[in-house]
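Contributing new complexes? Match this layout with serine.
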Amino acid sequence: MSNTERILITGASGQLGVELTMHLRARHGADNVIATDVRDNKAVSGTGPFEQLDVLDSDSLAAMVRRHRIGTIYHLAAILSAKGEADIRWTWKLNMDGLLNVLELARDEGAAASTRMEIFWPSSIAVFGPDLPRENTPQECPLNPTTVYGITKLAGEQLCAYYHRKFGVDVRSLRFPGLIGNKSEPGGGTTDYSVDMLRAAAAGESFVCPVRPETRLPMMYMDDAVRAATDLMDADGSKLRVRSSYNITAMSFSPKELLDAIRAHVNGFDVAYRPDHRAEIASSWPDSIDDSAARRDWGWEPKFDLPDMVREML
Ligand code: SER
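Output block (do not edit by hand):
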């Protein structure tokens, strides 16, 4: 990797950020991966360069990119679906202005430098609303999100497509389903119930589930999510026909199906159901996703299904 190909990660202390930072450091060398976040997390600050960065501070972001000669940004900093409902204005500001700062910087750097910057930005199944076919939800369909988080992801997808079309910014994106991993804490998402249920089972505790027992959602084990992001960034850009965001999935399950899969390993694990506002969000999202465009354009294929994921997590 040359000096202009260093990687910067925003939101590196978050659930996906920690695992992506560790993966990229193992692959490219710790010094070539600059982890940033507003809050410190020893998992990333203890394993390589870490800088405190607020993505709303565009001057500091630009200075950091120039100082470290960054060629690729994984822009992960965002507020998720369940938490976002508690502060609409703040969720809009952080999620939209953060992305806009990164896209504007990539446009400026692209105009000034001989090498172009590459951006990864995660979208989400939250762009979908209740008016769609819930099974095998297609890549192209009317998008009517029900949360402010989903609205920011939909607007963000459109911004990514616009910056690519108008300014040639090489921004690539995935509509992640619920992400499940055991090396970092999830925070503020609707799909986090699955991680919380697995943790309770592993700790020998009972669990109160905020989502209804039969509500199925698309999900993905963290190893697949990290590989999906890096495979997309490695792909030949001329083959990428979707410049908003790719549908992507690995498995689908309901809380009841997850409970059954856990009980294959943990005897007597008990779950009670107390649906709250997260149950309403969950029931507005798809049961399963058609990710054939990702398979076709850059060879996406998941490795972990429900039994694999549960075994790894426990
Ligand atoms: N996992 C996210 C959430 O539940 C969806 O992108 O908010």
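Reviewers usually confirm one structural detail per submission. For this one: DSSP finds twelve helices and twelve strands in the chain.
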